[in-house]
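Continuing the batch. This is chain 6 of the set; chains 1 through 5 are on the previous pages. Same settings as before, nothing changed between runs. Recording input and output for traceability.
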Amino acid sequence: MHNAALRALDLNYVYAAFRVDPAALAQALAGMRALGMIGLNVTVPHKQAVMAHLDEISAEAQSIGAVNTIANRDGRLVGYNTDAFGIVQSLKVDGGLDPLPPKVALLGAGGAARAVLYALLAREEVEEVLLLNRTVEKAAALAGDLDSAGKVRVGSLAETGPIGDAGLLINATALGMHPRDDVSPLADPSCLHEHMLVADIVYNPLETVLMRQAAAAGASAINGLGMLGWQGARSFEIWTGVEPPVEAMMAAALG
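Output for chain 6:
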């Protein structure tokens, strides 16, 4: 995706993937400085641990409590989070949802859910977020971290009934992702309805069990490819200072 953007703009950079052991995280960042890399993306399990090794962290990433993008500013490593931007743009562009509905259901309480919840709570039109997770205590801890206005209601992923009142359902769990692509995060899909948009942040496979359940209920559904593309486009702009060729990036993400 990023290499497609670099080719489209004829920029003399290359984007490559590296597997980093958690014990070698500090060394990897030292290597970033030493080699003059202009930027990095950070994935699980490093999004929170990396923050201790950075010189500066954006206010948004600080609030979310996770970094997925690092820019090298003359040897100073600055952390950002573009996931929140990615989900909002995807809901708007791919889901046709702007403004967001007053009630939103969010499944999951991990790193991805953290950025999504931050994005939802930043929207004035969102009055309530139903945060459901298999471990209710983890959901409560996440709500405690981000919800200063009392908008979040926490519950168990097994209790899907209240989802029926939502106009937007976002799956931020890994349930339905390859190789577990034969499962849904919903114990009972009867909560889905035709006046709802279902956004699954999973993009492998492109059509998940949850999306098929949504279609059967008459609901609209989008996968996580848009979020991936938009957060990547924002990272690209942070690194290069150049407006990203979004269409080329999305086409490359589709393979």
